[in-house]
From TrEMBL, chain A:
One of its GO terms (cellular component) is ATP-binding cassette (ABC) transporter complex. Pfam families: ABC2_membrane_3. The chain crosses the membrane at residues 28-46, 180-204, 230-252, 258-282, 294-311, 349-367. Keywords: Cell membrane, Membrane, Transmembrane, Transmembrane helix, Transport. It is found in: Cell inner membrane; Cell membrane. This is Transport permease protein. It comes from Pleomorphomonas carboxyditropha. It comes from the Bacteria. GO terms for molecular function: ABC-type transporter activity. PROSITE patterns: ABC_TM2 (PS51012). Residues 148-374 form the ABC transmembrane type-2 domain.
From TrEMBL, chain B:
Keywords: ATP-binding, Nucleotide-binding. This is ABC transporter ATP-binding protein. GO terms for molecular function: ATP binding; ATP hydrolysis activity. It comes from Pleomorphomonas carboxyditropha. Residues 8-243, 341-568 form the ABC transporter domain. The keyword Oxidoreductase does not apply. Belongs to the ABC transporter superfamily.
Length: 376, 589
């Protein structure tokens, strides 16, 4: 009797939640359309890579040696060099925002190169320091190529100058493509958005419309209410996850070096955490407006800023590091990036999944408690 | 049902809440009572009496602070779920899922209560027939009218026959027709299934149907007993006075209610005034008050006993407030005879739907004009057009001599508006609200100051009190004061009395009649049909059409033969006649 009653009620409530979800157009837009927009935005629109950076080269020394030194600039796909005749002209361009950097080859370059202490001047537009740092890297790389060739050509002829060459390799993200780490992060953002934001309205709406009061005075049990509210949104979350993974694989060519099933399992686990958080906020605030604000502030914003999505957490103050460690999003962010780019590393997988599972259980239990069928 | 004869037994029950000002309020303050099984039991009392709190405690929805509460032989505090498995509860605002259809709502509750399929079929058929909703099963609950929603709520609570049915003010905000239908359903189930029902209500005619009545006020029990027994408290004190020819009943009523030393209560009814005299007063002093109006004894009713109980309480708690507003409209006294409001062939359509169909009427200066009608009749739409909040689709509309099509802003300056909901700023003080609304109406400087001071005095308001935490009756006064701050010629009141208790309502109407006496024209909508008796003229609307227009007496006559009929039955009769006529026309066409 009791078990069959549980099943009947759970099915009835789940059916009700599903119908309500399907009939609420704004819900579906947030649930299914917004993730598509986010995927396209983050995949195509957002990139920390700098392509065709505008570098103005000022050749005050027009000797072949000097020309040869900056020849590498032309071959790089990341740089779009332009040529200026005077430093004054170039400075004017950087002020007007027409160029991102100035590479100055001083008039005594050839002479000093022969003497072994040649210098080039690189002026960067520091308004966007991230871009500036990236361009600096590109330019150094481009300049290193002819230097390398020269060294090779010189062969083992002692040149009089000892030269140490750093051979750079970026592991896991060999090309340094930002899409590769943005897209796995996108999975975190989408799961957070669907989970916390959509569910944050569910219980609060019932409090506001007075439907819970009627529902409470029936044989319904709090756990049934919670499970029925989770069910349809797990489906939505799963659809979104599938969209993210397909986009990652086929649109953005992000590698998936970990096992697919581990990626899916970990994502669903995080989805549960996120849904649980949304429901808990909803059940305790009892107000749709407050609940959606809270959900945004406690889940989506931190997932964006503090989870290591964009900013490296080791560079932030200790207090924020502690805060970020508390966030479930941080654990999932680390896990999903590792899974996508590095592969299955079991100690991390087990630890992070255990943490996420703990969060999910605690949040769902807390929601159940807050729906304990009392109005006061 | 355990063979027990008692469904609910309450002992020294207490429940306190935190008051808005931080203190504690005892919503239920040491109540003891016993409710018998198999019959209808009523909880009556003014707003804030503690009826809803008590209901919720019986339903196991609130923690108990002190005392004991047993429902169906079970301790509610210890095992609320077992109680909730066996009872059905309809809260004041039944939580229908508006995006689910009628059938889906019913299915949900049937599933939750575990009603077997074969039983369900019969039950649904019966419920849909009783609520007259078989045609609407596919319609989303959100698209039903207020009365229909309430009926669906009742049907959802009755998907199975409970051991105890709790109804919390099922008829609040419901028009007389839907109210009658609701009670028909409940009565039928009590007769056929010996259902035990506890119903809380503010309507005495509803309490009169019950076997047992508990009168509550301020969290305490004032009296209990069968309606017949309770009624005897007013025995020998109840009379009807007939005003002399040409004198409106409300004028006589005003005179009587202003003499609390001699009169306990007085209300206009059917062209006369029903009153209760103070037992101590002598006949000579009574005759002084009545002048030559002939009086006749009338049988006492539950309402009389209820008013007596409340008056006694009130006298103990605080001296009654006597507001004698002396307000005169700012405009000149000229063109006395010209109507203040002229409505000609007014039409309002929303798409294909005609909310108001070709409506015409005039309202004279100083008149109290009532707009009555069932939920969804077009009252609110008419009202909004008159206030200039909504443009008319076609027709002529003139307010205070100004055409609303061409001079809407100017017309608005001449009218005051009190909305149904408390539309003032809750976190501002009384004075700040008055000053803000005065400023919004263009008052400033010295004139604003004197108007605010006058309003504070006129309505007996504390200027520094925070508006949001005033008791309902005082919020009502503040709303009136802001509506009148710019001394308008016309005051619009949209269901001003829903949710305030009978005493506050008497005081409210006293203010209204005084304002009308001072020359302010009043347009009012209400769900309380007996309040139509205060109006000079009323219009009854249904489905956008005006079915009756005239003095309360005219309207009663139009409804049927004798003048003995009360306004409530007159209203029902007129709406039903109107619908029958309309249906016949449709059939012919």
């Amino acid at each position: 009797m009791s078990a069959s009653g549980f099943a009947t009620r759970l099915i009835a409530l789940t059916r009700k939640e599903t119908r309500q979800m399907l009939r609420d157009r704004s819900n579906l837009i947030v649930g299914l359309l917004l993730p598509v927009v986010l995927i396209l935005l983050f995949g195509y629109g957002l990139s920390f890579d700098v392509k065709d950076a505008r570098v103005t080269v000022v050749l005050e020394d027009s000797s072949p040696t000097a020309r040869n030194a900056v020849a590498g600039m032309r071959g790089s796909p990341y740089l779009a060099p332009a040529w200026a005749t005077s430093m004054a002209e170039a400075e004017q361009m950087i002020r007007a925002g027409q160029t991102d950097a100035i590479l100055r080859v001083p008039g005594d370059f050839s002479r000093r190169l022969a003497a072994g202490d040649a210098q080039l001047q690189l002026l960067l537009n520091g308004v966007d320091s991230n871009t500036a740092a990236t361009i600096e890297g590109y330019v150094s790389g481009a300049l290193a190529i002819p230097a390398q060739q020269q060294a090779d050509r010189a062969g083992n002829k002692p040149s009089g100058v000892a030269s140490v060459v750093v051979v750079q390799r970026m592991w896991f993200n060999e090309a340094g493509e930002s899409t590769w780490y943005l897209v796995p992060g996108l999975v975190v953002l989408v799961m957070t958005l669907i989970g916390a934001f959509l569910t944050s309205l569910l219980v609060a709406r019932e409090w506001e419309r007075g439907t819970l009061e009627s529902l409470f005075v029936t044989p319904v049990r709090p756990l049934e209410l919670v499970l029925a509210k989770l069910a349809p949104y797990i489906v939505i979350g799963a659809i979104d996850l599938a969209m993210c993974l397909l986009a990652a694989r086929y649109l953005f060519d992000v590698p998936m070096r970990g096992s697919l099933w581990v990626i899916i399992l970990a994502s669903l686990l995080y989805l549960m955490v996120s849904l649980g958080l949304g429901l808990f906020i909803s059940a305790t605030t009892r107000n749709q407006f407050a609940a959606s604000q809270m959900a945004l502030l406690t889940s989506f914003m931190p997932a964006m800023m503090l989870s290591g999505f964009v900013f490296d957490l080791r560079n932030v103050p200790v207090v924020i590091q502690v805060v970020s460690k508390v966030l479930p999003a941080t654990h999932f962010m680390g896990l999903i990036k590792t899974l996508f780019m590095a592969g299955d590393y079991w100690p991390d997988i087990l630890r992070d999944c255990a943490i996420l599972a703990l969060y999910a259980v605690v949040l769902i239990a807390a929601t159940r408690r807050s729906l304990k069928k009392k109005l006061d | 049902m355990n063979g027990a004869e008692i469904t609910v037994s309450v002992e020294a029950l207490r429940k306190t809440f935190e008051a808005p000002d931080g203190g504690a309020v005892a919503a239920v303050d040491g109540i003891s009572m016993t409710v018998r099984a198999g019959e209808l039991t009523a909880l009556v009392g003014p707003d804030g009496a503690g009826k809803t709190t008590l209901m919720r405690m019986i339903a196991g929805l609130l923690k108990i602070d002190a005392g004991s509460l047993r429902v169906l032989g079970l301790d509610v505090a210890a095992d609320p779920q077992s109680v909730q498995d066996r009872i059905s509860y309809m809260p004041q605002r039944f939580g229908l899922y508006e995006d689910l259809s009628v059938q889906e709502n019913l299915d949900l509750y049937a599933d939750l209560h575990g009603v077997p399929q074969q039983e369900r079929r019969d039950r649904f058929a019966r419920m849909l027939e009783m609520t007259d909703m078989a045609r609407f099963t596919e319609r989303p609950a959100g698209k039903l009218s207020g009365g229909m929603k309430q009926k669906l709520g009742l049907a959802c609570t009755l998907v199975r026959s409970p051991d105890l049915l709790l109804l919390d003010e099922p008829s609040v905000g419901v028009d007389p027709l839907s109210r009658r239908d609701l009670w028909k359903i409940v009565q039928q189930l009590v007769d056929e299934e010996h259902l035990s029902v506890i119903v809380s209500t503010a309507y005495m005619d509803e309490a009169e149907r019950c076997a047992q009545v508990f009168v509550m006020n301020r969290g305490r029990l004032l009296a209990e007993g069968a309606p017949e027994t309770l009624r005897t408290r007013a025995q020998g004190l109840t009379f009807t006075a007939t005003p002399s020819e040409g004198m409106p009943a409300r004028e006589l009523q005003a005179r009587l209610i202003d003499a609390p030393d001699r009169i306990i209560d007085a209300v206009p009814s059917g062209g006369s005034v029903r009153f209760i005299r103070q037992p101590e007063t002598d006949d000579a002093r009574l005759r002084d008050l009545l002048h030559d109006a002939p009086i006749e004894p009338r049988p006492e009713e539950l309402e009389d006993a209820f008013m007596m109980l409340l008056r006694q309480e009130e006298a103990e708690v605080a001296t009654a407030l006597t507001d004698q507003p002396a307000s005169e409209p700012a405009s000149a006294q000229a063109d006395q005879d010209k109507p203040v409001i002229v409505v000609r062939d007014l039409v309002r359509k929303f798409g294909d739907f005609t909310a108001v169909a070709s409506t015409s009427f005039d309202v004279a200066r100083g008149e109290i004009f009532g707009l009555l009608g069932p939920n969804g009749a077009g009252k609110t739409t008419t009202f909004r057009m008159l206030c200039g909040l909504l443009p008319a689709t076609s027709g002529h509309l003139e307010v205070a001599g100004l055409n609303l099509r061409t001079a809407r802003a100017a017309a608005r300056g001449r009218i005051g508006y009190v909305s149904q909901k408390f539309a003032l700023y809750g976190n501002l003080s009384v004075r700040e609200n008055l000053e803000f609304f005065g400023g919004a109406y263009g008052l400033r400087g010295k004139r604003l100051k004197t108007r605010v001071a006058a309003s504070l005095e006129q309505f007996g308001l504390d200027p520094s009190a925070q508006s949001g935490i005033l008791p309902a009756g005082y919020k009502q006064r503040l709303a009136m004061a802001t509506g009148l701050i710019h001394q308008p010629d016309i005051l619009f009141l949209d269901e001003p009395t829903s949710g305030i208790d009978p005493l506050a309502r008497r005081a409210f109407w006293r203010t209204i009649t005084a304002l009308a006496g001072g020359g302010v024209t009043i347009i009012i909508t209400t769900h309380f049909m007996e309040e139509a008796e205060y109006c000079d003229r009323i219009a009854i609307q249904d489905a956008g059409r005006v079915l009756a227009l005239g003095t309360p007496r005219d309207v009663r006559q139009q409804a049927g033969d004798a003048g003995v009929m009360d306004m409530n039955s007159a209203f029902i009769a007129i709406v039903e006649q109107g619908r029958a006529k309309h249906d016949a026309k449709e059939a012919a066409a």
